[in-house]
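Ticket #4471: structure output looks truncated?

Reporter: J.K.
Steps to reproduce: submitted the chain below (343 residues) through the standard prediction queue, then opened the result file.
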Amino acid sequence: MGEPRSISEIRSEAGVIAISARVRGQVDELVKKESANGKPYWELKLRDAWDSLTLRAWTDTDAFRHCAEISRGDFLEVEGEFVVNGGFGLDARRWRLRTLDEEEIKSLLAGGTEESLSVDRDFGDVVRLAGEIRDPRLHALCAIFLEEFGGRFKRAAAARFNHHAHRGGLLRHTGQMMRTADSVAQAYPGLNRDLLLAGVLFHDSGKLWEMCPPDAGFGIPREIRGELLGHISIGIELVNSLWRKLPLEEWKSLVPSTEDVRLHLLHLIAAHHGELQFGSPVEPKTPEAIALNMVDNLDAKLEMLAMAYARQPEIAPGIHERVKSLNTSPVKPLGIFPEQTEG
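Returned output as attached by the reporter:
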């Protein structure tokens, strides 16, 4: 059977012909249901660092009995035959489960080499680009945020469903956005690079409380603050609270004024969804706000496409099942052209 695989690895390799594999994760949801003909079954959603898998245990299986003995939040290993099942996506047959011991749980939470490298790269780029901000006010604000909340930032999700909906998803989203924003600022030198980079760092900072897994877990719990206020309001509150910790008296003579810098940064957070109907309390009114909205949308949609290619079944050669959030049926891309020589 070999070493345990991640859900994403199994998803990428499984097809209509089943593959035998083991996968480890945490129980995100566990519900006892009934089929249309009244037959009871357990529906178990297993989540690891990057992906999730829904399993169904019927009464004639050992897994059905085991599901009655476990709880949401438990860490499990599932062994079985994995297959892509029509419109249901990745599924498992003849699967069985066991509870992980403490050492196995610790190893799972630590992640593999690829995960660690990805976190290190994204966080390193965020720290580097924030450190290049020349305005002392924005520079200090970013530094205190990363110092106080870096650990929480590394594990927060960027969403629950559509994109980067996993532990560490917010860091991956923000890292890619900051790299993109840096390139955009170079292409459009009239943009305020310092403000744009700071805006990217803080635009989803409220998600550190709206959708952040615990230290020892992959699930994305709901918190009362996130439910009542939403991440935009929380992000604005966060910036204002950190701003009051800065040595503002030292910057009285700076131009533009410190108050104008604060207001423009808050505007980037408030307007980053782009339209009132999408949850922003105000529409983008500055070049940096427009750029931030588009960089955010670009990264989110490219991630949704990547997820669709990996998870949505093909309904025709090269054409994947429609994705509601994208409002289209993704078509497989050409990919990167190989280097070619004439003659």
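Triage note (M.O.): checked the attachment and the full token line is present. Residues 287-311 form the longest helix (25 residues).
Status: closed, working as intended.
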